[in-house]
Amino acid sequence: MLVFTRPDEWQKLRRAYFNTPASIGFVPTMGALHSGHSALIRRAAEENELCVVSIFVNPTQFDRSDDLLAYPRALSADLAAAEAAGCDLVFAPSIEGMYGSRPERSAADYGHLTETLEAAKRPGHFDGVVTIVRKLFKTVNPDKAYFGEKDFQQLAVVRELVKREKLPVRIMPCALVRDADGLALSSRNVRLSPADRQNALALWHTLREMKSRKQHLDPRKLEKWAQRHLEQQPGVELEYVALVNENSFEPAQKWDEPVRALVAAKVGAVRLIDNEPLTD
Ligand code: AMP
User: Fold this and answer.
1) How far, in Å, are 209, 211, 222, 276 from residue 218 at the CA level?
2) Are 84 and 51 in contact (CB under 8 A)?
3) Helix runs in the chain, H state only
4) What is the pTM of this model?
């Protein structure tokens, strides 16, 4: 596995090592890799001749500087994990390499999609995501890019970016990976104390419970139930729970549309997100 850090190195590397045209599968990450990331990397490696993983904690997508500072970093373990999952090349740029001396983000205005839920709670977050994904796509030039459904709204925003700017890349959605007890895997989970981790399970338990209650309640009423339920869970500071149409992100009204439940909450000092489809 090769590691490169400067955006301009990639074209040279590609010519030197891979002179036949190869299909490139790309997995952008912020590092602190876990089995959720590994699943994306394995798939990208299986479905392409070359698998490229980026590891870059992107400052412009953080709405809070304390969150950026506390974000876990583990480059040498990440390199081992990426290689074990079948990665051929890791791109680990510096902030300066990606942004020059002043990291700036350009506004991404995709209407309701960039106004609701995560966008409302984390101002500027999707501006930063779109800015870095555009830059990474331009550098790596992948045929396919793999994104996890763990960040369900991010996946929709990236699809919208590709559609609006007609970028020559296929977005490949990948299922959310959970720990054995159901907690959605996240790089931030290492910051949970044992008690926080127990409390955090309320998110998954509530999503699961919603599935069993959907026969009796319409989506609007089920959302209200989930909100009351989560507000009562010890150690959970609810930011939102929402039942939305998966395509429009508008509030879901009926069960004959594709409905997904999305939740965000603070548990201890850590902000967690999770989601689950409620219709097949
Ligand atoms: P991150 O490093 O958190 O920016 O995530 C990099 C990519 O991995 C994103 O496309 C995430 O959606 C995806 N990812 C993170 N956690 C999971 C998970 N538990 N299951 C599936 N994909 C994930």
Assistant:
1) 14, 12, 6, 16
2) no
3) 9-17, 35-47, 65-70, 75-84, 95-99, 118-121, 125-140, 152-164, 194-213, 219-231
4) 0.97
Ligand 1 centre from 177 Cα, in Å? 9
Run of H or E residues at 86: none
Site to substitute for ligand 1 among 33, 37, 159, 262, most atoms within 8 A of C-beta:
37
pLDDT, tens digit, 9 for 90 and up, residues 16-34: 766 666 899 999 999 999 9
Residue ranges matching CATH 3.40.50.620 in the chain: 2-174
> For residue 42, what are its two tokens?
């394995």
- The token pair that represents 192 in the structure block: 């949970």
**Kind of pairing, strands 24-29 and 144-148?**
parallel
* 11 pLDDT tier (thresholds 50, 70, 90): confident
d(CA 132, CA 127): 9
98 with 57: CB under 8 angstroms? Answer: no
Q: Which is the closest atom of ligand 1 to the Cα of 185?
A: 19
Residue span(s) of the chain under CATH 3.30.1300.10 come to: 187-277
Angle formed at CA 159 by CA 158 and CA 161, multiple of 5 degrees: 60
pLDDT in tens, 84-139: 999 999 999 999 999 999 999 999 999 999 999 999 999 999 999 999 999 999 99
The rounded radius of gyration (Å) of the Cα atoms in the chain is: 19
Residue 205 is a catalytic residue? no
C-alpha span between 52 and 47 (Å, rounded): 12
CB of 37 within 6 A of ligand 1: the answer is yes
Contact 200, 272 (CB under 8 A): yes
Q: Which CATH number is 187-277 given?
A: 3.30.1300.10
Q: Which fold has domain 2-174?
A: Rossmann fold (3.40.50)
